[in-house]
Specification:
This is DUF1173 family protein. It comes from Komagataeibacter oboediens. The chain has 434 residues and is of the alpha+beta class. The chain contains ten helices and 20 strands. A five-stranded mixed sheet has the order 8-17-18-19-20, with helices on both faces. It starts with a strand and ends in a 16-residue tail after the last strand.
Length: 434
């Protein structure tokens, strides 16, 4: 955001960094231009310096009644038209698993906030509504939008994407830590609604040494009474069987001021292991041997332990109702195979700028790149694909992918690595000269 210039209605120059360095000036100038921006023609509205087909891309000046504050927002569906380095850039949903949802699942508002249709019912008290596992209707063609609701995995991917954690720039090195990532996730939750509720109202990150997160979890449970339904998000430290036939999960930092027991029923643990095999395999390794982190988004029932004579009085007992796991590199970039991890780490080591499209709830027939380089001469990004299997079904699938990429980007217009042959990773496409 630092140094980004905005042109306000009337030609006044405005800097995005004022939101951090001079918030009073930020509010004063946006308030002064609010009415003028609303009545101005598209070409005279606030804008950044990005252009699309020779025309400036306008921005909105929006007022948030809940916080009595002003902010700038991209116009609906125009985020992908901005330059990749622009703070108002948003990934193209057609280049990720978001393309599998029907239009009603993710609804983008004028202020850039989104509303989603979840597969679970969000409730404060009482028994949780069951997950809707009824089969989705079949599609007439591969890759067609068919998903009518978003599962916890889709929500986890949406939070990760909205927090900007699917993208990498060389300047991120040394600054993208698990605690920083969870802070960005918490902020992203303030811009997502489900069933009329802000996800941030129910979202409690768990991070080591973060007293604010810890106080929030206890405050939410204490305020809502004896039982509350909420989302926990954090990095999984361990998932182990307990004497009662269920499992206990420990999130990194959970023992550091959180005073929380987290139980996973055996049936839910087995579902998580089946649905997230890479994450389960990672957690089966000794912690010192893991080459990646596992992130968990868990919808839980939480209550305070109030028994007067209990040694655990004041602690929280939480039980996982449903959830999702995601495996990420040490740079916190998601990946779906060891070969993808190798490519992600190599791109980071090479100092490249790229993004990692996420699958959301898409089935395997939807084609989108494993990675998209953002620092080549191609403005719309350079797609990258990793081929990692040799079974018959995947061979057919590979041919479909190759035909799609050749038709969309031209033969030789995309990068690939056949990791099944034992060959070395091919050189990456050249980046733009700096």
């Amino acid at each position: 955001m630092t140094g980004t210039i905005i042109i306000l209605p009337g030609g006044e120059r405005f800097q995005l960094e004022w939101r951090r360095t001079d918030p009073e000036r930020w509010e004063r100038r946006l308030k002064a231009k609010y009415d003028e921006s609303r009545s101005a023609e598209r070409s005279d509205k606030a804008r950044c310096l990005c252009q699309h087909r020779g025309a400036a891309l306008p921005l909105q000046i929006r007022y948030r009644a809940d916080s009595h504050s002003y902010h700038l927002a991209v116009w609906p569906n125009e985020g992908p038209l901005h330059e990749k380095t622009c703070p108002f850039y948003k990934p193209d949903p057609e280049k990720s698993g978001r393309a599998s949802y029907v239009n009603s699942v993710i609804r983008e508002g004028e202020d850039g906030d989104v509303a989603v249709t979840l597969s679970i019912g969000l409730r404060r008290k009482g028994p949780p509504r069951p997950v809707d596992d009824t089969p989705l209707p079949a599609s007439d063609r591969p890759g067609q939008a068919r998903q009518r609701r978003m599962t916890p995995l889709g929500l986890l991917h949406l939070l990760w994407e909205r927090a900007g954690l699917t993208e990498w720039r060389p300047q991120f090195a040394g600054h993208r830590t698990p605690t920083v990532a969870l802070g960005r996730i918490a902020s992203a939750g303030t811009r997502i609604r489900a069933q009329g509720r802000l996800i941030s109202d129910l979202l409690c990150p768990v991070a080591p040494g973060h007293e604010k997160f810890g106080r929030r979890l206890h405050a939410v449970v204490r305020t809502e009474g004896q039982e509350n339904h909420l989302f926990l998000i954090g990095f999984v430290e361990a998932l182990e069987p307990d004497p009662r036939g269920n499992f206990t999960m420990a999130l990194t930092g959970q023992r550091n001021g959180y005073r929380c027991f987290l139980t996973v029923p055996a049936a839910e643990r087995n579902r998580l292991a089946r649905s997230h095999q890479l994450a389960a395999a990672t957690l089966a390794l000794p912690e010192a041997a893991r080459q990646a982190h596992v992130v968990a988004l868990l919808y839980v029932t939480a209550r305070n332990i109030v028994a007067p004579n209990s040694r655990w009085k004041g602690w929280i007992q939480a039980e996982v109702r449903t959830g999702a796991l995601m495996t990420v590199s040490h740079s916190l970039l998601p990946f779906e195979s060891s070969h993808e991890l190798a490519v992600a780490d190599a791109l980071v080591a090479a100092g490249r700028a790229f993004e990692k499209p996420l699958r959301f709830d898409a089935e395997r027939d939807l084609v989108f790149p494993d990675f998209i380089l953002q620092d080549t001469a191609r403005n719309d990004g350079y797609p990258m694909e990793v081929f990692g299997r040799t079974d018959e079904a995947y061979t057919t699938r590979r041919a479909e992918k190759e035909n799609y990429y050749d038709a969309t980007f031209g033969a030789g217009g995309w990068w690939s690595w056949d990791a099944t042959t034992g060959s070395r990773m091919p050189p990456f496409p050249s980046g733009r000269l700096r």
